[in-house]
Amino acid sequence: MTEKTHPGRLWRKAALVWVALSLALAATVVGAYLDIGAWKLPLAMAIAAFKAALVAAIFMELTGAGAGTRIAALVGLLWLALMLSLTFADETTRAQSSDGFTQGAE
């Protein structure tokens, strides 16, 4: 790292990210109280993805990172997508039991 950074610039960048994350937090809280039906979860997930992308781009410095770091971040995202898709597939294919938890307790 031959690049010299000024402490004032680092504080400014952190303050701007803090403001953006605070606004996203406010949007999350407002979205939780909106009566938008089935769009509540996609809205919350989109805001969460924005916050994660902001942290990854600014604090993890993925925009200026090398190829290895970018590939590692991409593999992490793909692993998360795989785990979420398997979780959703498992949840949607389970049979609904009217007995509750007594089905396998005999």
UniProtKB/TrEMBL annotation:
Domain of life from the UniProt record: Bacteria
Cellular location(s): Cell membrane
Coiled coil: none
Pfam family for this entry, one: COX4_pro
Predominant location: membrane
Cellular component annotations (GO), alphabetically ordered: plasma membrane
Topology in membrane: Multi-pass membrane protein
Keywords: Cell membrane, Membrane, Transmembrane, Transmembrane helix
Segments crossing the lipid bilayer: 41-59, 71-89
InterPro entries the record matches: Caa3_sub_IV, Cyt_c_oxidase_su4_prok
UniProt-recorded name of the protein: Oxidase
